[in-house]
Write a structure and sequence with these properties.
This protein is of the alpha/beta class. The protein has one domain: Aldolase class I (TIM Barrel). It has a 12-stranded mixed sheet. The structure holds S-adenosylmethionine (SAM) and iron/sulfur cluster (SF4). S-adenosylmethionine binds next to β3, β5 and α11. InterPro entries: Aldolase_TIM, Elp3/MiaA/NifB-like_rSAM, MoaA, MoaA-like, MoaA_NifB_PqqE_Fe-S-bd_CS, MoaA_twitch, MoCo_biosynth_MoaA/MoaC, rSAM.
């Protein structure tokens, strides 16, 4: 089993499968994109599967496929299917911008994907265009409705940003009245790849909740599953629920069970650390499974207590969520 030096067991792998994306969300990357990695710099499927298998042997039981946009990586369904058959992995989830999800849904359902997080920051086409710099709102809404019909557990990720989508908070909450969906409001973080100056947020978890309670005073607090990153609530008589993720104010680090592997195979023991070790180079230099296991143990034995401590040690705190594997 894999534990860190603060006694937290690691159970959940977030695997960034590409740093590329077909959108340009301004809070994630600059308009011109990033200095995207060459194919040879990115882990191959075989390398990703090997690391996942080794981690599964160490007690990791859940994997999230993310990026960049997972569905822009060629043959991604092959990787998803292979990961889902690894012994010990009993939950495979995907985070996607939803622009090309529909064509993959039947196969994802057949593979038995447990849940999909759809990123959708607003319910208005113009605002969507301003935020993502691409006119793909209709495709994403089609994906949302297809997800609702599919019966796959669905969460919506909405990054809350002053002057961009505050007017969407209540309509987004109200989606949960009609749909069995969990809407999660995420505090904006500084990881925008240098695309914009980051100013400390005013729309933090507390303010988001106060705003919702201003419209719905009888919001009910739901129990938060162990190691959940969201504080969970429900509107009266809603079919779904909503959560607030204090990603910037970082009040949730004490129960963090996550391992991040970036598309280039760097380990991040915390979202806010700079990337501590290249498993890509280690594997390509011939490391054995046992050496890889020991390296994971060593690195997690030196893990920051929380995101603030990790940020202090980080050499590159403002990279893009797409290269981190959000
Ligand atoms: N492209 C996919 C998508 O957008 O769902 C997966 C990768 S994306 C980096 C994963 C999640 O990170 C998305 O929900 C996105 O909204 C979120 N994200 C990206 N940049 C962020 C930032 N600076 N602060 C907070 N969340 C961010
Ligand atoms: Fe692409 Fe996701 Fe980043 Fe938006 S948040 S630019 S969809 S990787």
């Amino acid at each position: 089993m894999l534990y860190d030096n603060h006694g937290r067991q690691l159970r959940y792998l977030r695997l960034g499968v590409t740093d590329r994306c077909n959108l340009r969300c301004f809070y994630c990357m600059p308009e011109d994109g990033l200095n995207f990695s060459h194919r040879s710099q990115i882990l191959s499927f075989e390398e990703m599967e090997r690391l996942t298998r080794i981690l599964a042997e160490m007690g990791i039981n859940k994997v999230r496929i993310t990026g960049g946009e997972p569905f822009v990586r060629k043959n991604i369904m092959e990787l998803i299917e292979n990961i889902s058959t690894i012994d010990g992995i009993n939950s495979v989830n995907i985070t996607t911008n939803g622009t090309s999800l529909i064509e993959h849904l039947p196969k994802l359902k057949a593979i038995g994907i447990d849940a999909i997080n759809l990123s959708l920051d607003c319910l208005d086409r113009e605002r969507f265009l301003k935020i993502t710099r691409r006119d793909e709102f209709d495709q994403v809404m089609d994906s949302f409705h297809a997800l609702m019909d599919s019966g796959i557990t669905t969460k919506i990720n909405m990054v809350v940003m002053e002057e961009h989508n505050i007017e969407d908070i209540i309509p987004m909450c109200e989606l949960t009245l009609q749909h069995k969906v969990s809407v999660r409001f995420i505090e904006e973080m500084p990881f925008n790849g240098g695309g914009k100056k980051f100013t400390p947020i005013t729309w933090n978890a507390r303010q988001i909740l106060a705003h919702i309670q201003g419209h719905y005073p009888n919001v009910e607090k739901l129990p938060d599953p162990e190691s959940s990153t969201s504080l969970n609530y429900q509107l009266p008589n809603a079919k779904g629920s909503f959560g607030i993720i204090p990603a910037y104010t970082r009040t949730i680090c004490h129960s963090c069970d996550r391992i991040r592997l970036t598309p280039k195979g760097e380990l991040k023991t915390c979202l806010y650390d700079g990337g501590s070790f290249s498993f890509r180079d280690f594997m390509r230099a011939g490391a054995t499974d046992e050496e890889i296991r020991n390296q994971f143990r060593t690195l997690f034995n030196n893990r920051a207590k929380d995101g603030f401590e990790a940020q202090q040690k980080s050499s590159n705190p403002f990279e893009s969520m797409a290269t981190i594997g959000g």
